Amino acid sequence: MIDRYQFLVPDFQSKEPKELALLSIISQSFFQPFSIEDNLLVILTALTSGSGVGFNRAMLFRTSGDKLKGEVWLGPRSAEEAKTIWEVLSTPGIGYVEIIEHNRGLLTRETDSLSQIIKPLVYSLSQENLIIPAMSAARKEMILVRNSRQEPFVDPKFLEIIGVDEFLCVPLFALDEIMGVVILDNAYTRQTIEPKDIKLASLCGLMAGNYMYTTMLHNKMIEMERLAALGEMAIFITHQLRNPLTTIGGFTDQLLNSPNDASKKRRNLEIIRKEIGRLENVLYELVHFLKVEMKKPVPFDLRPEIQAVLQSSDIKIKSEGIEVVVDIEERLPKILGDPTYFGEAIRNLLDNALEATPQGGRVTVQSRWEDQNWVIVRIQDTGKGMPPAVKEKLFSPFFSTKDKGLGLGLLFVKRVMESCGGKIEVDSEAGQGTLFRLYFKSAEEGRSDA
Amino acid sequence: MKKILIVEDEEALCLLYKEELSQEGYDVMTVYDAEQALEVLNRERFDLIITDIRMPGRDGVELITQILGLRKGIPIIINTAYQSYKEDFMTWAADAYVVKSSSLQELKSKIKDLLNQ
């Protein structure tokens, strides 16, 4: 027999040992897809909530290069505020989520938030005469300061701001990497910091340091992947530009060197014209690909957008000899997305469909409100279809079966669909034609007669 | 007359090279991919090979490796749009590496050098 368990966050009011609750709250937050700032707030909340470690205030400094910079200071601003807040927060029914929300509110109160006070504090981590709080981070040591006013190692400016006799510095680090330092105090209750508090705080510090380190590595990795993709892109673009340029240059030189060769004149100019078209295509794809950004989807009627694409001259030229069937349901709701991107995506797919379809073939553009929330646009051709190997790579960058362009067209369509919360599917078999299905979110509630 | 084999998948470039090099007095044959190139090389003798390194079907790199086995001293010029491969290829396979450009001067003079003209 096996028992399955979800990772559960114990409630702040639960009867479980508070150390256990604390650990699960912090580790749980690392599984959430929140920003690092949000998760650090969770850790600071755990350090300052009554059912967590229970410090009055927590201050976070983070490293940036070899500097340590003040970032967040969480806690009440005065003894009175502390009393009111703690009363509210200890009311039955107030749980972990509410406390986090409350703290987030504190931090976004730009004008009078405590954090503004520590933001100008910047310390060097590499200088020889380290002062507290930087000393704790640089040496990766927890430091408990008592009688702070008699302590020569404490930065006087910092002391003036924190204004307490006793505080605890907890370094945040992983391996050799220093991520920051947390400073904890009991400014209002004036409780002495006990060894058990230090142990719990160190545990939080270790977890936070490792979490920050992992996040940093993750971000670095994403950046490296992005740079690698950019490098690959640059190589492909170079290739796509150089070939037409070589052709244009060569045939132009021929014309210049033998201006009286009438037979070559027209032929060369036609080749040059065609190559210029290729260059334009590369630019067009590149510009469109680069400019897709996450815009807030707006409701719009897809009918005029599709019509505009069908009426455009390049599509009209390509449709010669091919039957283009447009079949859009009468009572179609508005869809969510960006009308310009939508048009470009449809143009891309139509362009491909028309190119793949032989003379006498058919291309269909159909739209239906089928599911409660989805409007589906289908673009189908009776063209040559795709073997599995091509279908597999369809949405990869720089993959193209055509000799023009960059192979970014379908990737562009995919990004457009993702940016409006939709999706794209494809059915294709060699010799059987291709069907693309675009799923758009309907801007209206589900249809009543469905 | 010196015979040159050109392996190039761009149709317009094949035409351009064929015309330009014929005018320089060479006997030029063009093929579009590596498969055709190997077939022709098995059948005929050439004095020089000009090849791209990224083409449909068998890759140009693979072609060079195969040609090395067949070429018996035939000089090879890599002619490609990819500048970045230069370091990889010059050292071990080709006799010259010419990045495609709007002027054919460099290509023409490399051909002359390699054919000792």
Write up what this structure looks like.
The complex is a heterodimer of chains A (450) and B (117). In chain A, strand 1 (57-64) and strand 2 form a beta hairpin. Chain A has 14 helices and 13 strands. Chain A is elongated and about 95 Å long. Chain A starts with 17 loop residues before the first helix and ends in a 9-residue tail after the last strand. The mean pLDDT of chain A is 83. Chain A folds into 3 domains: 18-221, GAF domain (Beta-Lactamase, 2-Layer Sandwich); 223-291, Orthogonal Bundle (Helix Hairpins); 298-441, Heat Shock Protein 90, CATH 3.30.565.10. Chain A has helices at 18-31, 36-48, 79-89, 96-108, 114-118, 134-139, 156-162, 195-257, 262-291, 302-311, 313-318, 339-356, 388-393, 409-419, and strands at 57-64, 67-74, 122-124, 143-145, 167-174, 177-185, 298-300, 323-328, 335-337, 362-369, 374-381, 423-429, 433-441. With 450 residues, chain A is an alpha+beta fold. The longest helix of chain A is centred in the middle third of the chain and has 63 residues, at 195-257. In chain A, the strands form 3 sheets. Chain A has a 6-stranded antiparallel β-sheet. In chain A, strands 8-10-11-13-12 form a 5-stranded mixed β-sheet. A two-stranded antiparallel sheet of chain A has the order 7-9. In chain A, 47% of the residues lie in helices and 18% in strands. Chain B is α/β, with parallel strands linked by helices and 117 residues long. Chain B is globular, with a radius of gyration of 13 Å. A 5-stranded parallel β-sheet of chain B has the order 2-1-3-4-5. The mean pLDDT of chain B is 84. Chain B has one domain (3-114): Response regulator (Rossmann fold). In chain B, strand 4 (76-80), helix 4 (86-90) and strand 5 form a beta-alpha-beta unit. Chain B has 5 helices and 5 strands, in the order E-H-E-H-E-H-E-H-E-H. Helix content of chain B is 43%, strand content 20%. In chain B, helix 2 (34-43) runs parallel beside helix 3 (60-71). Chain A binds chain B through residues 235, 238-243, 245-254, 271, 274-275, 403, and chain B through 10, 12-13, 15-17, 19-20, 54, 81-84, 99-104.
